[in-house]
Amino acid sequence: MRLPRIRVSGSVLRRWLEPGIGLKRWLLVVFAGEALLAIAGALLLRQVYREYVFSGPSQSLLYVVTLQFLPYWLRGLIVGGGGVGLFVYGSWRAIRVLMGPFLSAESDQPLVEVIYQKRFLSRGPKIAVIGGGTGLSTLLRGIKEHTSNITAVVTVADDGGSSGRLREELGIPAVGDIRNCIVALADSEPLMGELLQYRFPGEGEGSLGGHTIGNLLLAAMASVQGDDFEEGVRQMNRVLAVRGQVVPATGTAVTLHARLLDGSEITGQSVIARSTRIDRVWLTPDNVAAGDDARRAIEEADLVVIGPGSLYTSIMPSLLLPELLAAVRASAALKLFVCNVATQQGETQGYDLADHVAALERHTGAGWMDVVLANNRFDARRPGDYFAEPVKLRWPPVAISAAPMPRLVLDDVVAPNNAHHHDPARLAAAVMHVYERESFGRRRSRVSRTA
């Protein structure tokens, strides 16, 4: 059997000894056992050396094999070095044989990284991320390198493209944002991600044109599960080995509506996304139940992250669900709002940081956000078709109540080559830094309350 290729380097060997792998304690046990065996062998050899006389030509081979011609300390050094070498080589080969069936033969990922992901990341904080669109999948790609206890609570209000057609034809909630988040969190091969994102060419009613493979799979899985949309998404998480889980904000198809500042009303996520001067948004049907998995994830979370994503069409729809908003407000977790790095042509055109926060509080109430994270780097490259502008750092927003203002944290989280998007690694590092710095006292108070 061809074993997976496992690279051996100084960095990889050091990685084996990092906290969280769970290997060092068992190495110590093995070394203790080897040491006892070595002591027993030494006692036996000591007794043999005392009773055996090395003399005569017939004993020359035994004399050489037992290194009698070398000083005693040098004999011990050679034998000990050989023992260590054999022990390390044998252990390494044993690990390869044991782990070979669980690794892809074509994988370039070192074995230690696989174990690190399964052991260390499983001990990371429980994070619930609420949103949708490109912003949410960007955060997920970065945050999954810090913890595997991630739940992406995804909006299902999209009504355009492939998602809109499936929603209209099958009556299921929108699946496009769910597909993007599953791809972002999946541990499957990159080819599988490309397959799920593949869009059939053409556009036509009653044909495959314009549909993506991932959307069709989600729709099919929901049908296989007896038209249970939430269970269908659960099964897709399992099939694609998602690190964490992706859950819909609700299992019911909802429609997003908006009222503009001039009093006119518009309907549909795709229409609202292109509109300016939005005053308020809401969902129909009214009082739709939130998904069980979504509520549970928020209740159990150590950190709840809102955004990034389109303010009115990706973030708001989930928070407009009364049960979900109530769960967020009641949660003892640290609650962090991640502001977009750039305005969006249409719905947030001309918005600054204070405008984003004020709009969110206008729809959800004040006093529940603990921290707001915003970008403070403005020299990133702007694409040629970049019609938006960086979000300006006006702060604080106009207070809508006497509730305390959230704390503002600024960091470099923008992609250097695209001023319109967050950088996954930088954003995830900033989020984890906020969690580690801000939640220590909160964790202690939660422990004291449960004691």
Radius of gyration: 29 Å
What's the number of domains? 2
- Determine the fraction of residues in helical runs and give it as a percent range: 40-55%
Architecture of the largest domain, according to CATH? 3-Layer(aba) Sandwich
Strand content: 5-15%
Order of helices and strands: HHHHHEHEHHHHHEEEHEHEHHEHEEEEHH
The number of helical elements comes to 18
- The largest sheet has its strands arranged as 3-2-1-7-8-9-10
Q: Would you give an account of this structure?
A:
This protein has 451 residues and is of the alpha/beta class. It has 2 domains: 108 residues, no CATH class; 234 residues, CofD-like domains (Rossmann fold). Helices cover 46% and strands 12% of the residues. Helix 16 links the parallel strand 8 and strand 9. Helix 6 packs parallel to helix 8, helix 6 packs across helix 17 and helix 13 runs parallel beside helix 15. The radius of gyration is 29 Å and the shape is elongated. The relative contact order is 0.09. The N terminus and C terminus are likely disordered.
Secondary structure layout plus pairing:
Elements (H helix, E strand, L loop, with lengths): L9 H7 L7 H28 L8 H6 L6 H28 L11 H9 L7 E5 L1 H11 L6 E5 L6 H10 L5 H10 L4 H8 L15 H12 L4 H11 L5 E4 L6 E6 L4 E3 L1 H4 L5 E7 L7 H9 L2 E4 L4 H9 L2 H9 L3 E5 L14 H12 L6 E5 L31 E5 L2 E2 L2 E5 L1 H15 L1 H11 L1
Parallel strand pairs: 1-2, 1-7, 2-3, 7-8, 8-9, 9-10
Antiparallel strand pairs: 4-5, 4-6, 11-12
Q: Would you summarize the structure shown here?
A:
It is built from 18 helices and 12 strands. It has 451 residues and is of the alpha/beta class. It folds into 2 domains: 10-117, no CATH class; 124-155 and 249-450, CofD-like domains (Rossmann fold), CATH 3.40.50.
